[in-house]
Specification:
This protein has helices at about 25-30, 50-60, 75-90, 100-114, and strands spanning about 5-10, 10-15, 35, 65, 95. It is of the alpha/beta class and about 110 residues long. The chain has a single domain, classed as Alpha-Beta Complex (Protein-Tyrosine Phosphatase, Chain A), CATH 3.90.190.10. α2 links the parallel β3 and β4 (about 65). α3 (about 75-90) crosses α4 (about 100-114). The model has no long low-confidence stretch (mean pLDDT about 95).
Length: about 110
C-alpha cells in the first residue's frame, strides 16, 4: 500500500501509521525527520514499537522523534515539545499516528501558540 502523505506546509507533512519499510521511501521523498505521535501499544501487537522504528529511521539516515500523544488529550507540554522539534530538527518533517489526524491537530496547536 502506498504511503499517504498530506503536506500541511512545505516543511511539515502528516501520514497514517508508518512501518519501518516505509522509511527508505520517506527519505527518497526528501524527509529528514520522522515524528512518531502514536503511543506504543495503542494498536496492539500489529503496531511496531518506537524503539524498532527509531532504529529503522536511523538506518535510513533519518532523524527520529518519539512524541506520543493520546487522541483527544493533547497537553500544553506536548505542544511545546513539538514547537522545540520544529525549531531544531532537520526539515522537512513527516509526523505520523494511527490516521494522521492527531499529528495534524498537534501541529495546528503549535501554530496557534505562535
Amino acid at each position: 500500500m502506498a504511503m499517504q502523505i498530506i503536506a500541511l506546509t512545505p516543511d511539515f507533512a502528516v501520514s497514517p501509521q508508518l512501518l519501518a519499510d516505509d522509511f527508505a521511501f520517506a527519505s527518497t521523498q526528501g524527509f529528514k525527520t520522522l515524528i512518531n505521535n502514536r503511543p506504543d501499544g495503542e494498536g496492539g501487537d500489529a503496531q511496531p514499537i518506537s524503539r524498532a522504528l527509531e532504529e529503522a529511521a536511523h538506518a535510513a539516515g533519518l532523524h527520529y522523534v518519539y512524541l506520543p500523544v493520546v487522541s483527544g488529550a493533547i497537553t500544553t507540554e506536548q505542544v511545546q515539545a513539538l514547537q522545540k522539534v520544529l525549531a531544531f530538527a532537520p526539515r522537512p518533517m513527516l509526523a505520523f499516528c494511527r490516521s494522521g489526524a492527531r499529528s495534524a491537530q498537534l501541529f495546528g496547536l503549535t501554530q496557534q501558540l505562535g
